[in-house]
Design a protein that fits this description.
Elements lengths: L1 H19 L30 E7 L6 H9 L7 E6 L6 H7 L3 E4 L6 H13 L8 E5 L4 E2 L3 H9 L9 E5 L1 E4 L4 H20 L11 E5 H13 L16 H11 L3 E3 L5 E4 L5 H22 L6 H30 L6 H17 L5 H9 L1 H23 L9
Parallel strand pairs: 1-2, 1-4, 2-3, 6-9, 7-10
Antiparallel strand pairs: 4-8, 5-10, 6-8
């Protein structure tokens, strides 16, 4: 009797094991993660074996050491830090070497940042596997210590899968200083960070301040350009675009990859300290964005960008009409203020104050004044109108490092 019960228990255990084992139709491939105790960035489980940081720098002697030091403080430090000294006439290269970085010098580069990066990528990528990652960051930017660990975590998964993350962009914040103009830029950057969070951290621009790429993504971009599937030349970054980071975003997304900006991927970057510098920077950004859209045309990827630019145009029209109407009313000497419009104005002010919360109390007070921010909005609208005018006249816009 005992023998029968023993045999029965064995048979029951075997049956349970058979039922627990999934058949071929139930097996789902899962991206392999690192094994217990595996170091970040090891090949175990398909994680990247290397992270190479590329920092294109043109006369950045004052800032390059801080950028390299921030990389050393990363929770997951890069395996190599390479400074690309591009037509430098100062001590950028020497300071970078003393800070522990490798230095390569661009050769006969006439294409500014994009050309320097293409030369550096041509040298670096042949030594890297598709599993590796490349960080591209500006020399005037410092990364949060969590940047690379958060970015590599976002990269986990099958790089060849549909909808895989192909690149991770930074969320940029303005450095201290710059007076009133610097404060306005910091408010603007904090609002942009809130917008990214509302979009569930989707990156609409792989910011040039700092972006982490899959090596395989960069290789596919170059192959697609060579095959004519996307424009922009025959290398990684487009040499024809004023805003190579914006164009690269559209290239990566056109190839079917997702672009994200996780909350740990913050960076602190330079703010413009004068109106002429800010004007030139924003004119390049706006003109480049519009020209990239004209180059790509209406596609599934560009449609949301075109809609947002259209809303920007409507905003210019409505604000202009509002100012004209207000001036006309004041000129008549009979200004009229209804409770309804005062309530609408209070809602507008409240929204400005709340969205400036992350920039500090002084920034919120500045936002609440409304008049200064209204002037800043008018400045942005003037940039938009000027960009459209220059595009219509096909006026050449010169690239600058800011």
């Amino acid at each position: 009797m005992r023998r029968i019960r023993h045999v029965a228990r064995i048979a029951l255990a075997v049956a349970r094991m058979a039922l627990a084992r999934p058949g071929p139709s139930r097996i789902r491939p899962r991206p392999a993660g690192p094994g217990p105790g595996a170091a970040p960035g090891s090949r175990t489980g398909g994680r990247p074996s290397q992270i190479v940081a590329l920092i294109p720098a043109h006369n950045e002697a004052e800032r390059i050491a801080a950028s390299i030091a921030a990389l050393r403080r990363q929770h997951r430090p890069p395996d190599r830090v390479v400074v690309v000294a591009d037509n430098c006439t100062d001590a950028t290269a020497g300071i970078a070497l003393r800070a522990g970085a490798e230095v390569i010098v661009s050769e006969n580069n006439r294409h500014k940042k994009a050309g320097a990066l293409n030369q550096a990528l041509d040298r670096a990528l042949p030594r890297l596997s598709d599993e590796d990652l490349v960080l591209v960051q500006d020399a005037d930017t410092t990364l949060w210590p969590t940047f690379l660990s958060s970015a590599t975590e976002a990269m986990e998964g099958n790089a060849a899968a549909v909808g895989a993350v192909g690149a991770v962009g930074g969320i940029f914040y303005g450095e201290p200083g710059g007076g009133l103009l610097g404060a306005l830029q910091r408010i603007e950057f904090h609002r942009y960070a809130r917008e990214i969070a509302r979009r569930r951290f989707r990156a609409d621009v792989l910011t040039g301040t700092a972006t982490l790429f899959r090596v395989t993504t960069l290789r596919e971009v170059k192959e697609a350009r060579l095959a004519g599937r996307i424009g922009g030349g025959a290398s990684y970054y487009s040499l024809a675009s004023l805003t190579e980071d914006d164009e690269m975003t559209k290239a990566v997304r056109t190839l079917g990859y997702r672009t994200v900006s996780p909350p740990g991927c913050g960076v602190v970057t330079e703010v413009m300290t004068s109106i002429p510098k800010l004007w030139h920077q924003r004119l390049r950004w706006q003109r480049g964005a519009l020209e990239n859209l004209r180059h790509y045309g209406w596609t599934r990827v560009t449609a949301p960008y075109i809609v947002r630019q259209s809303f920007m145009g409507l905003s210019v029209v409505f604000l202009s009409l509002y100012l004209v109407f207000t001036a006309w009313m004041l000129a008549r000497g009979r200004p009229q203020f209804s409770r309804f419009w005062m309530a609408v104005g209070m809602v507008f002010v409240t929204e400005k104050v709340v969205t400036a919360r992350g920039a500090g109390r002084r920034a919120q007070i500045l936002a609440g004044s409304l008049v200064v921010e209204l002037a800043y909005d008018m400045f942005q609208h003037a940039v938009y109108v000027r960009s459209l005018w220059d595009m219509a006249r096909r006026r050449e816009e010169r690239w600058c490092a800011t």
